[in-house]
Amino acid sequence: EAPANEKPEVVKTHLRNMIVLPEMVGSIVGVYNGKTFNQVEIKPEMIGHYLGEFSVTYKPVKHGRPGIGA
Q: Which residues form a coiled coil (predicted)?
């Protein structure tokens, strides 16, 4: 438990398949995406979802101008 005006301590995990439980609301979890730990603050609307849903494992593609061979 953290004081009222401070953020709670980050708990790091590789368990992307863990379901968010009501006891976890308000905590900050570092979810591993294969490279780094993304900090996720658990909110009430996240209950029942997997932790992995809140930490993207890939970099979304940004399409630019077509290059050679396009």
A: none
